[in-house]
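Attaching the record inline, Q. Sequence:
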Amino acid sequence: MKTSQLLLCVSVACSSTLAQGTTYTSRSDFNAALGASTTITFENLAPTDTGGMGAGAIMVSGVTFTNFEHQLFISSDSYLGTGHFLFNFDSSYPVGVFLPAGKTAFGADLSGGLGPNPSFNATLTFNLLGGQSLSYNFTGLQNAWTFFGATFAAPITSLVYDDGGQFFPGSHEEAFDNVTFGLAVPEPRCLLFVPLALLLLRIRRGR
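Structure, as predicted:
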């Protein structure tokens, strides 16, 4: 096997390993997988009254949160036990998030759900540079935060957080806090392919 062919095999193996992304339900594990990162806490944004008109887009630190129905608010309600957070109030649509270019990691404290069921089944759909989309499901508790994060080999262009709410009557209640985005460090399991390839090359040249 030629050197170029072997390196191609290594590249394909790494791409296959990372294509599906790596998900995290622990913030500490997620943070350990990051290089440079930024965290949005929403504390510097003034609270907005849900009795009035919400926003269709809110931009913070280069990240844009969107909702088709203009139902985004900054809340300071204490029921979630934190300070300010971004809240999608009684909307027919979920929340879209657009990241700055080149970011390969996203994680946040997430909440949502509405109704008698104390839990909700949510979906995060990540859109990657190059056209690939990957969806992940998780179960959260109403009136509580659930952390979910993911890292990828390719940059994330955007994502959609859907708490499973209905279109009519609007019952999407997605909430975000401590939103972290940045660059993921290469996974150790992928880096192991490189010395293995070099070892195979040395063996082959020694014959």
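The helical segments are 3-18, 27-32, 188-191, 193-206. The domain at 21-206 is CATH 2.60.120.260 (Jelly Rolls).

More tomorrow.
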